[in-house]
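User: Can you predict the 3D structure for this chain?
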Amino acid sequence: MALDPKTKTVTQTVGVVVLMGGLAWASVPFYDWFCRVTGFGGATGVSEVASEDVLDQTVKIRFDASKERSMPWEFKPMQRQMELRIGETGLAFYEAYNPTDRVVAGSASYNVTPYEAGGFFTKIDCFCFEQQVLQPGERVQMPVTFYVDPEIVSDREGQYVHTITLSYTFYEIDLPETHAALEQDSKNDKKLN
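Assistant: Here is the predicted structure, written as structure tokens:
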């Protein structure tokens, strides 16, 4: 039984819309995976252990901090630059301060420039791996532990990288359920008093 042309056209249109929606939905996780695997776009690697090889060659690491327009925190690197031997483990700190009178949760996105260095910049531990929650007036120093993979010196483009910039951008997120419940209880207590 053949479909009439109008039904066939509607069926094809609905199929195209569903296919495009599925591709759009899958594109974000696929792109994130692609960037992490290849270092494209400044995505970094992650490791649980330090590099076994440490070279005599050095690289400068610069630290940058910014925040989304609506993020009320103050956020800055505790040092602007350090020089490390390639493969040597580095430890840097960023400071966040919540000047508001409310609990604020934040999450940090990051990238590395030049992009060629992204696949060789490896984090061992980072405050960006989990969300941060600051109480009113709270100030914290948050660590990032990292190294530059010695493979960078034999990479066709990476071998010319002598300075790497690690950038973080903090943005506000919804409070985790436990903190949101405590915040609501606190507001209710204030209303009763």
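The longest strand covers residues 163-173. Residues 30-42 have pLDDT under 50 and may be disordered.
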